[in-house]
Structure formats: structure tokens, C-alpha cells
From TrEMBL:
It comes from Medicago truncatula (Barrel medic). PANTHER family: BIFUNCTIONAL INHIBITOR/LIPID-TRANSFER PROTEIN/SEED STORAGE 2S ALBUMIN SUPERFAMILY PROTEIN-RELATED, ECA1 GAMETOGENESIS RELATED FAMILY. The keyword Signal applies. This is ECA1 gametogenesis related family. Residues 1-23 form the signal peptide.
Length: 154
């Protein structure tokens, strides 16, 4: 049963890592030169979704995000936080993390990876919301700059 599960997850993992390299997200991911187990099968909707998610990640940000989540040995900078929160989005962030967890190499660290994933997301959202209004990117909405009287309708 474990062998069957390993082989059924293998195409998903290979596709994900192929996306990392194909889109330039991670220069450290290796792709096998072997053909897929069943070349005639079409990618699933989830695999297509993951590919779409991967195309949203800026090339230099892929490594920062990947290593921050999976190994905890990097920090995601503000530019990459902007990319993650405003362009990749929470759903893609969570789904790409889940896809990585299908790999045997990362499955044993599932709890740590999920915690780091949540921490990266929360830290990025926090850093974008706490931007100094004078130096904030005009494309990032600063909730602290809202005048509370604007919503006073009475």
C-alpha cells in the first residue's frame, strides 16, 4: 500500500518541482530527465492550479519563500512579501505548501513546515500593513491610514 501511495504521489511531486525549475522559482530544485510514469495522462485540475500559482511567484522570490517555509533558514523580504500576499495569494500559498508536503523528504517535517508557512504568511501580511505611510509602496493598501470618520454615516 505504501508503494502504491508513493507512486501515485510521484507525478504530483515531479510536476511541482518541474514547475519550480520551469518558472525559475527555485534554482535549487532538480528535475529528473526520465519521462513521467504515464506520459499519456493529462495534468489534473489541481496540477494546473499549482502551475498557475507557480507562475505568479517572482523568480528571485521563489527561493526566499521556499527556504523560509521548508527549512527556516531564510527571511522573506518586503518585495517578496508583496509578491506573496498581493499576487500569489493565500490559497496558492497554502496549496503549494501542501503539494510540497506530499514529498517523502518533507513529510517528516510536516508540523514544522505548516507552522513556518503560517508564520511566513502572517509576517508578510503584518509587514505590509505596518509600512510607514511616507515610504509605503503606493500599490500596497495601508489600513492604518484610514480615517475612522470616513465610515461615520450619521
Amino acid at each position: 500500500m505504501a508503494t502504491f501511495n508513493t507512486f501515485s504521489l510521484l507525478p504530483i511531486v515531479l510536476t511541482y518541482f518541474a514547475l519550480l525549475v520551469e518558472t525559475g522559482i527555485s534554482s535549487h530544485a532538480q528535475v529528473s530527465n526520465e519521462p513521467p510514469l504515464d506520459a499519456s495522462t493529462q495534468p489534473s485540475l489541481f496540477e494546473k492550479h499549482l502551475k498557475n500559482c507557480a507562475t505568479k511567484v517572482y523568480q528571485p522570490c521563489g527561493d526566499e519563500i521556499f527556504f523560509s517555509i521548508n527549512f527556516g533558514n531564510q527571511t522573506v523580504g518586503k518585495e517578496c512579501c508583496f509578491n506573496l500576499v498581493n499576487e500569489v495569494g493565500k490559497q496558492c500559498h497554502d496549496d503549494m505548501t501542501k503539494a510540497i508536503l506530499t514529498s517523502e523528504d518533507f513529510r517528516k517535517s510536516k508540523t514544522s513546515i505548516l507552522k513556518r508557512s503560517a508564520k511566513v504568511w502572517d509576517s508578510c501580511v503584518s509587514s505590509l500593513l505596518n509600512n510607514n505611510p511616507q515610504s509605503a509602496d503606493p500599490n500596497v493598501f495601508n489600513y492604518n491610514s484610514i480615517d475612522p470618520n470616513v465610515f461615520n454615516f450619521y
